[in-house]
Amino acid sequence: MTLKDQVLQGHKRQIWLANILAKVGYDTPIGKLLRLWAYYSDAIVMVRHWRDFLYIRKDNIGDKYFAVDQAIMHSSHAQVKELMHVEPQIRGNDLGIIRILAPSYLLNNPLSLGMNGREHTGARNVFLQALPNPLEHAQTLGELVNQCLADAAKQGKLHIGKDLPKIMLNILHQIVFNISLSEEDITASSNFVEGLPLASLPNFISQRLLAFKTAPIIKHRQYLIERYKESPKWASYLETGSQYQLTPHQIANTLFDMIHIAGTAGTSALLGSVIGVLCLDNALKNDVITEFNHVWDGTEPLNGQILEQSTLIHKAILETSRLYPAVRFVSQLAKEGGEVEIGGTKCPFQKGTRLLGSILTANRDPNRYNNPDNFDTTRDFSDILSWNGQGQERACPGRNLSIGFIQIFCLYLLKKYKWESITEVKWDFDKVTAVTPNDLVLQGFAPQ
Questions:
Q1: Cβ atoms of residues 344 and 176 within 8 Å
Q2: What does the pLDDT look like over 343-368, one tens digit per residue?
Q3: Model-level pTM?
């Protein structure tokens, strides 16, 4: 059976399931079991061919179709933008298409993406308090970046997939908690990020059958949570969170997830893609360097004005996030049941059904962008969907820090360091992970 046949046959099962769930109930034991069967049936294909999965269903069914556990996938720019702007949103404890079925992996604390109402507002306010404005803290962030790059230079190489997440973990712990992690700690935190798919397995499998993998990760998370509470900044986070009735356990764990999932997995992935773009496009890289040389001589302390004047790299970051989004799906729950037309067929859906938005296909929607698969820094980015858009409750609270940090990293990378050669630059659109060129290595990496 071809991949196309597998994907379309799987959707026929989803159509059948929609009518069955209308009879047996969405959240009844049998309904949950059937949805879990559908979830893993789609996941088997998506894990290995996620982009092809999306486009086969989009091209043959339409801009809306069923996916994973009876979720309704929205794939056009207009649909995903509308989905993001629904307020108030109801969220499940999901990470994009990944259902968190093993709460033990998260110490039984919901993701901030799975919080609603007052809890969600409280978590966002703690995040906004914890994340520095890069324009105001450019010098500090620059010094931290420079130290990490100097450490990489001692090894003579910068490995995108291995080094960037560790650099992010190191720096984020210093700016959020004023604590330094050992190499052992950073490795353990990297293992947590890489092991996130284990949280999509039922709890008894993740916690017990795979304990040889998950137990050390969970123990490390517990250890860091206790370290957070010893930070000089902890009291202020506790005060803010308490105003929204968040417990110390919730506050510490949501900050852990902010650092490890959004900050590390998200920002390091986008940073790696930006570096990949610059490695492939020498003309763009040279133009960026020319602009950097114009706005910063490399000797004065870095400041916010320098970042504001670095407009080309800012546009390059936005365009990279459009083509290679670090966050590929946005998710919420239907407040009421109803009927949806999919592929010309009217299908029932139930209250609590997941509504998914495919950011990758929306960002490449030809109805929104001319030549959507081409890299173009002159585009209109006013309603870009990366970072969950802007100006509404779904917008990522770390957007400004993410962009500012990547600007600062590129400033130091291109003005202070050099490399003799690079390995192949390749974005992976098969495995359902960030599409970053993780195998890219800057070889002969050294100070200029």
A1: no
A2: 999 999 999 999 999 999 999 999 99
A3: 0.95
